[in-house]
Write a structure and sequence with these properties.
5 helices; 2 domains; mainly alpha; about 0% strand; about 140 residues; single chain
C-alpha cells in the first residue's frame, strides 16, 4: 500500500467520522427537544432507506454512469483534465472581466489546451524514459 493510498483511506475515514458526528448531533438535538420516539424512528427510517438505495439496481446503473463519464473526461491522465479545466476557467474569468476580445480568446484557450496536452505528453515520456526496464 502506497502513502497516497493510506492518505486516501485516512481522509475518507475522517470525513465519514465527521458526517457520523453531525448526524448523531442532529439525532441527539431532536431527541432532547422533540422526543426520542420520533428521533429514533427517523434514524431507523433513514437507515432503511440507505440500505434500499445502496443495494438497488438503480444505484449500480448510476455508479456505472458516473464511472463512464469520469473515465471519458479524465481518461488515463488526470493532469490533462485538470489543465484543461484550469485553462477553461481562466478563459471564463477573462470573458467575465471583458479583458480580452472574444475573437482573441478562442485561439488563446485552444493554444492553452494544446500546451497542456503537449506538456503532459512530454512529461509522461520523460517519466517513462527514466524508469528502469523490468524483465519478464
Amino acid at each position: 500500500m502506497s502513502a497516497a493510498d493510506l492518505g486516501l483511506i485516512v481522509s475518507v475515514f475522517l470525513a465519514s467520522a465527521v458526517e457520523f458526528v453531525e448526524a448523531l448531533t442532529i439525532v441527539l438535538a431532536m431527541g432532547v427537544t422533540r422526543g426520542w420516539r420520533s428521533a429514533l424512528a427517523g434514524t431507523f427510517a433513514a437507515l432503511a432507506a440507505l440500505v434500499v438505495v445502496a443495494g438497488s439496481p438503480a444505484m449500480r446503473l448510476l455508479r456505472g454512469f458516473v464511472r463512464f463519464w469520469v473515465d471519458f473526461i479524465v481518461g488515463d491522465d488526470w493532469r490533462i483534465a485538470l489543465g484543461v479545466a484550469v485553462v477553461l476557467a481562466l478563459g471564463a474569468v477573462l470573458v467575465a472581466l471583458e479583458a480580452v476580445d472574444e475573437a482573441v480568446l478562442a485561439p488563446l484557450v485552444a493554444a492553452g489546451i494544446v500546451a497542456v496536452a503537449s506538456f503532459s505528453i512530454v512529461s509522461s515520456a520523460r517519466r517513462e524514459r527514466s524508469r528502469p526496464l523490468r524483465n519478464g
